Amino acid sequence: MFTDLIDLASRSLGGTVMYANDEFFAERENLINPFEPGYSAATFGHKGQVYDGWETRRRREPGHDHALLRLGASGLVHGVVVDTAHFKGNYPPEGSVEGCFLPGYPSVDELEKAEWFPLVPRSALEGDTRNHFEVASRRLVTHVRLSIYPDGGVARLRVHGEAVVDPGLLPDVFDLAAAEFGGTVTDWSDRFYGSPAKLLLPGLAANMGEGWETKRRRDSGNDWVEIALAAPGLPQLVELDTSHFKGNSPGTARVTASDGRELLPETPLQPDTRHRFRVTADKPVKAVRLDIHPDGGMARFRLYGSLKPKTRTALAERWARFQEPS
Fold this sequence. Notes:
It is built from two helices and 22 strands. It is mainly beta. It folds into two domains: 2-163, Galactose-binding domain-like (Jelly Rolls); 168-310, Jelly Rolls (Sandwich), CATH 2.60.120.260. Strands 1, 2, 6, 7, 8, 9, 10 and 12 form an eight-stranded antiparallel beta sheet that branches. Strands 13, 14, 16, 17, 18, 19, 20 and 22 form an eight-stranded antiparallel beta sheet that branches. A two-stranded antiparallel sheet has the order 3-4. Strand 3 and strand 4 form a beta hairpin. The longest helix is centred in the C-terminal third of the chain and has 15 residues, at 309-323. It is globular. The two termini are 28 Å apart. The mean pLDDT is 94. It comes from Actinocorallia aurantiaca. Belongs to the allantoicase family. This is Probable allantoicase. It is an enzyme of class 3 (hydrolase).
């Protein structure tokens, strides 16, 4: 399911809502809040019931409302969720999502003049519902435009996909597993309490809910997650962060390359601790597997390393192809 992929628009990844033509009842910034939308009945402000979402006034003239978002990382969009949670008599009956590719830091005026292409055509929406739309386009996207017809409220906009970044902006040594650079969780044993995709988010986790946590194991096995790296690289340091996980941190952890090479042997972990270990590899690693024993939670996983010159050249050539007219 495309919702297993990272939300490229999320505030957690650095996304922002740059503009909305109207936000009379509820602020546009709520669209990219990483947390689930909430609602408290009979909570009134100066403009009426307070909603955890973006809500425009009732239109009395032709037209429609829209919001412009800059993604936290440019990427290929696989699916979109237009979540109208708690909007029942005031949701938009239709919506559409477009994308554009405009690298750098364009202004709102520049975006309004950009070449926009459809990701989700104008489609019917249901109220108080997560409206899922698969995206067939495989054009690179830096910004999206959400349009609602004619007006109403949307709680969240999720733009799920895989990050593709300008390799010219990558440092000599960087986190090869980071979602913002293109690292992707590809498989896992369990995600009962928290998605493993959270392991690859930027920054420190603010609490236990911002990490990956499995249910309690009652067998002889162990939990694990597999991660495709942003590019084949040479690992130098692994970070296993159990911050906030105290009575539920793993006892030990092991990191291996997808071809079976052991990067970090099974190693004891401490609760609520950022662990760092030096690692080496004699040839590039494409993907890794993190095993935790037997179960538990982890806030972040980092794998710092470098790229060989030929890998950087290949990434630069791919990025250049995105600059060519479609």
